Amino acid sequence: MHPHLEKIGDTTLLRVHDQGPVLDANGLRDLVGDA
């Protein structure tokens, strides 16, 4: 269960086996900024 990063577009996802994809701070900030 090692987390790994996935680069999708310009958003980096931190994928954890138990939790699924989780946006990092920058990804979340970008998402909120676009909303």
Question: In short, what is this structure?
Answer:
The protein is of the alpha+beta class.
Describe this structure in words.
The protein has 35 residues and is α+β, with helices and mostly antiparallel strands. The chain has one helix spanning 25-34, and strands at residues 4-8, 11-16, 20-23. The protein has one helix and three strands, in the order βββα. The chain is flat. It is 29% helix and 43% strand. A three-stranded antiparallel β-sheet has the order 1-2-3. The chain has one domain.
Give structural attributes.
35 residues, alpha+beta, flat, three-stranded antiparallel β-sheet, 1 helix
Q: How many separate structural domains?
A: 1
- Major sheet details: 3 strands, antiparallel
| Shape call | flat
How big is the Rg? 10 Å
Kindly report how far apart the N and C termini lie: 32 Å
- How many beta-strand runs? 3
Question: What's the number of helices?
Answer: 1
SSE pattern, N- to C-terminal: EEEH
**Fraction of residues in helices?**
25-40%
Give the structural class: alpha+beta
Biggest sheet: strands side by side, in what order?
1-2-3
Low-pLDDT windows of residues: none
Give the rounded overall mean pLDDT.
63
Strand content bin: 35-45%
Helices and strands in order, then pairings?
Layout: E1 4-8, E2 11-16, E3 20-23, H1 25-34
Antiparallel strand pairs: 1-2, 2-3
